[in-house]
UniProtKB/TrEMBL annotation:
<feature type="domain" description="Aldehyde dehydrogenase">
    <location>
        <begin position="32"/>
        <end position="493"/>
    </location>
</feature>
<keyword id="KW-0560">Oxidoreductase</keyword>
<dbReference type="InterPro" id="IPR029510">
    <property type="entry name" value="Ald_DH_CS_GLU"/>
</dbReference>
<dbReference type="Pfam" id="PF00171">
    <property type="entry name" value="Aldedh"/>
</dbReference>
<dbReference type="InterPro" id="IPR015590">
    <property type="entry name" value="Aldehyde_DH_dom"/>
</dbReference>
<feature type="active site">
    <location>
        <position position="269"/>
    </location>
</feature>
<dbReference type="InterPro" id="IPR016162">
    <property type="entry name" value="Ald_DH_N"/>
</dbReference>
<comment type="similarity">
    <text>Belongs to the aldehyde dehydrogenase family.</text>
</comment>
<dbReference type="InterPro" id="IPR016163">
    <property type="entry name" value="Ald_DH_C"/>
</dbReference>
<feature type="region of interest" description="Disordered">
    <location>
        <begin position="1"/>
        <end position="49"/>
    </location>
</feature>
<protein>
    <submittedName>
        <fullName>Aldehyde dehydrogenase</fullName>
    </submittedName>
</protein>
<dbReference type="InterPro" id="IPR016161">
    <property type="entry name" value="Ald_DH/histidinol_DH"/>
</dbReference>
Length: 498
């Protein structure tokens, strides 16, 4: 039993500190519940190293209370109908948008995403996703009747919510990645337990405030920030019908094994080492105006970033030079500085790991191209200058492992066929692109590269289309109308005639 089941909720202050903190504790069953003492984390701003505050964390013993709150709301939420669910989604979107600037700034301070990007990825994008699923919910048909093949009568297909969903989201795009889970789950009629990363504890408090202000029925959405122990308890909990997870492949494998072992459902959006194939006939101006930005999104802390650039001989050195010019033009700076193109990476440990990967590649023979960091950066920030590693072998660790930093490998291919082989010679299969003037060739390559999504002369995951990976990049799909189906089960009723 959770310690929180033994006592009523403790009212907490409505005040907001200079650090943007709202109420402390977890948001469970429509109430703010004070956490036990001693389980906390100190947060620091990766741009400056300055303290952001100390936050309390939920733990494994809180899972029962979270699941119980969600279960209490399940029948009412499923039964209120798609139109009412759409109204709640629209109310969440409205309050999310109203709190947008505050939320965007908090995420920038928590993990270093430049403020302009944070507005797009933590406010405008999620709000659009929620409104999209509100629209789909209004037209959701839950009963379908068919003519049976084997008897006289009717077959009725009843689509019912799966039940309680645990949405476990990472720190790199926290609220966009939540919205792509929360929107379809709520539209389908499933209550949700949100488990954000510890790094996003401050913005998670604000998100819970948004839910409270939007009038979400108690228990329909619950928010608890915690670590691996809380996540593991939710994944293993018999009351959780589905786990929707975005994160590393290693953790995803563990979640898949646990959830599969108890015959529950999961959606696992995992890592990537996406390849961009650039052919000799590519439009160089177009390619170099679009592709490098896709390689360094969010300082490379993006699962679908095009971090392997595989170019054929006639254009290879021109691509190297184009990347050189791109990284020289990028301003690295604090996340809240509107002129910063690239912010810091999320932690000192991440910075050291990324620099170690670069050093290892150079030792193996890579040609390193990178600008110097500006001299006026805060000395305690976690900055990494964007790196181009040319002449990389596709078998080197830097080309096979997800570095999750501003590091791009340029790889030479003999021809288009060799480029496809190199692109597929990797454990991951999340995304990819091809750059060529020949659309027939591009479509053929798109069909042969092993990736869940693929772009021709560009790339942007569209909110109205399914998105996810293959191989070590995960299972299941998010986004589009297909995502709602992932939170429904199909039950059948046979009606026999006289």
């Amino acid at each position: 039993m959770s310690v929180h089941e033994t006592a009523p909720a403790v009212p907490l202050s409505d005040g907001q500190s200079a650090a943007g903190q709202h109420r402390d504790g977890m948001y469970c069953g429509g109430q703010w519940i004070a956490p036990p003492q001693g389980r906390e984390r100190k947060l620091r701003d990766p741009s400056t190293g300055a303290p952001l505050g100390t936050v309390s964390l939920a733990g494994a013993d809180d899972a029962d209370a979270l699941v119980a709150a969600a279960e209490r709301s399940a029948a009412g939420w499923a039964g209120c109908g798609p139109v009412r669910r759409a109204e709640i989604l629209e109310a969440i979107a409205e309050r999310w948008e109203a709190r947008g600037e505050e939320l965007a700034e908090l995420v920038s301070r928590e993990m270093g995403m430049p403020l302009g990007a944070s507005r797009g990825n933590n406010v405008h994008g999620p709000v659009a996703v929620l409104r999209y699923y509100a629209g789909l919910a209004r037209g959701l048909e839950t009963v379908e009747r068919r003519a049976p093949l084997l008897f006289d009568g009717t077959v009725s297909i009843h689509r019912a919510p799966l039940g309680v969903v645990a949405a476990i989201v990472p720190w790199n795009y926290p609220w966009m990645l939540l919205a792509t889970k929360l929107g379809p789950a709520l539209a389908a009629g499933c209550p949700v337990i949100v488990k954000p990363a510890e790094e996003n504890a401050l913005s998670a408090r604000l998100l819970a405030t948004v839910l409270d202000e939007a009038g979400v029925p108690p228990g329909v959405v619950n928010v608890a920030v915690g670590g691996a122990d809380l996540a593991a308890a939710l994944v293993a909990h018999p009351g959780v019908a589905k786990v929707a997870f975005t994160g590393s492949t290693a953790v995803g494998r563990s979640i898949g094994a646990t959830v599969g072992g108890r015959l529950a459902a999961s959606n696992l959006e995992l890592g990537g080492k996406s390849a961009a194939i650039v052919l000799d006939d590519a439009d160089l101006d177009l390619t170099l105006s679009r592709l490098p930005a896709l390689s360094y999104l969010n300082s490379g802390q993006t699962c679908f970033a095009q971090t392997r650039v595989i170019a054929t001989p006639g254009i290879y050195e021109r691509i190297v030079e184009g990347y050189r010019e791109y990284v020289q033009a990028q301003r690295v700076g604090p996340a809240l500085d509107e002129s910063s193109a690239l912010g810091p990476v999320a932690s000192a440990a991440a910075r050291d790991r990324i620099e170690g990967a670069i050093t290892g590649a150079v030792s193996a023979g890579a040609r390193l191209i990178r600008p110097a960091l500006p001299a006026d950066l805060p000395p305690d920030g976690h900055y990494v200058a964007p790196a181009v590693l040319a002449d990389v072998d596709n078998d080197w660790p830097v080309a096979r492992e997800e570095i999750f930093g501003p590091v791009v490998c340029l790889i030479r291919a003999r021809d288009a066929e060799d480029a496809v082989r190199l692109a597929n010679d990797n454990a991951y299969g999340l995304a990819g692109t091809v750059w060529t003037r020949d659309l027939d060739v591009a479509r053929d390559i798109a069909a042969r590269v092993q990736a869940g999504s693929f772009g021709i002369n560009g790339y942007l995951p569209d909110l109205g289309a399914p998105w996810g990976g293959v191989k070590a990049s995960g299972t299941g799909r998010e986004q589009g109308p297909e995502a709602i189906e992932g939170f429904l089960r199909a039950d059948t009723v046979y009606e026999f005639g006289s």
